[in-house]
Amino acid sequence: MTPVELSRTVLHAVRRAVDEGELAVAVLPERVVVAPPGPGGCGDYATNVALQLARPAGKPGPTVAELLRTRLLHVDGISDVVVTGPGFLNISLAGGADARLARLVRDILRAGPRYGHTHDLAGQAPALHAAPEIRALVLMDSVARVLRSQGASPHMHCARPPQDAWVRILGVPSDITIASSNTPLRPVPAPADPTPLGRDAARWALLHPAPHDRPRIGGAENDAHLAQRETNPLFRVRYAHARARALRRNAADLGFAPEPGPLASDGDTQAVIPLLSDHPRVLTATAAHRAPDRLARHLVAVADALAPLLPTVLPLGDEKPSAAHRARLALAEAAGTVLAGGLSLLGIDAPDHL
User: N or C, which terminus of the chain has less Cβ within 10 Å?
Assistant: First the structure.
């Protein structure tokens, strides 16, 4: 289905909804504009026609969008329709597994580190309160970052201002409102000062364990967080991202670029795909449960699933770059993009070189 055909299909759905009395609109649009989804969108194409019809129909945008969605789902050539934000229709065209994979990779590369960001919480301004302790403040900061990624405008509060070292070294915001609460975020406190670890390792050490678990900080535990080896989950995540970035540079030297496409059904490529597809849901759950540890564990799973794919991306010996190499490179870059975006929401840097 071409964009022109899709535009006509959506317009036909609008006309049928009006003819059958589901929408009361005096003047119908002459055409429907469809375009690649913007930030927070998904699928192949998106349209704001529901928003255009909402006021004349006297209905909220999401309600109009849901009416049209139920009609479009029965159209041949359309595999899925998702309503996002104030009423955008995100339409996925029918295709096999190869088409869905290419669409997923294309969606990630188009969105960049903002893949999984939405406007679902737009208009909401949740009040976050942290106990006056370093782990609680870092947790609140990360929760606020994830909430913003979902469209919310959170306000952060604490009974006391953060210490200067927490702001300067660990990136705790300095503009926290001083206010008390009976229900603050109160994870198990850090057993020792995390600042000697530096920003990235300290934030990971505080955020990776679930809030009810005791973080491993102090003494020999600090060495484990700074170790550049596979036993350190933060190292695995950042190493996988850096490898993905290096593959893009190496491929450019060999004269080829990433191009989403079909991939062989083997473990090297297939393990990472469902994890990438699940990333938006993980961000939604992280925001809902105020639990950055969910995102941290998800990033570790993505990195571990990406590891077997990385050695297969570049041609070996006299082998020429093929469509399979370009598709693997695109998948690796998509995974690296998810890792970078996730780390940024935890307040952790994702370097291109390690």
Answer: C
- Least confident piece of the model among 29-38, 110-119, 172-181, 301-310: 29-38
Question: Which is it for the CA torsion 96, 102, 108, 110, positive or negative?
Answer: negative
pLDDT at 307: 95
Contact 328, 237 (CB under 8 A): no
Residue 64 Cα distances to 56, 69, 304, angstroms = 11, 9, 42
- C-beta separation of 174 from 162 below 8 A: yes
pLDDT score of 63 more than 70:
yes
CA 5, CA 318: separation in Å to the nearest integer?
A: 44
Q: What backbone torsions phi and psi does residue 162 show, to the nearest 5 degrees?
A: -70, 150
276 phi and psi angles, rounded to 5 deg: -65, -40
The count of C-alpha atoms lying within 13 angstroms of the C-alpha of 231, restricted to the half-sphere facing its C-beta, is 6
Q: Which residue has the tokens 């695109």?
A: 330
The counts of H helices and E strands in the chain are: 13, 6
Q: Which two tokens stand for residue 86?
A: 């104030």
pTM here is 0.76
Per DSSP, 46 falls in state E
Q: What is the pLDDT of residue 267?
A: 63
Residue 123: left if φ>0, alpha if ψ -120 to 50, beta else—which one?
Answer: left
CA distance 314 to 262: 16
- Report the pLDDT value the prediction gives residue 246, as an integer from 0 to 100: 97
Q: Within a 10 A sphere around the Cβ of 115, how many other Cβ atoms?
A: 24
Q: Using an 8 Å Cβ cutoff, are 150 and 295 in contact?
A: no
What's phi and psi for 65, nearest 5 deg?
Answer: -60, -40
- Per the CB < 8 A criterion, the answer to whether 118 and 343 are in contact is no
Question: What residue type is 25 in one-letter code?
Answer: V
Q: How confident is the model at residue 100 (pLDDT cuts 50, 70, 90)?
A: confident
Tokens of 147: 């909430």
Average pLDDT rounded to a whole number, residues 15-25: 89
Please check whether residue 163 is in contact with residue 137, taking contact to mean a CB–CB distance below 8 angstroms.
no
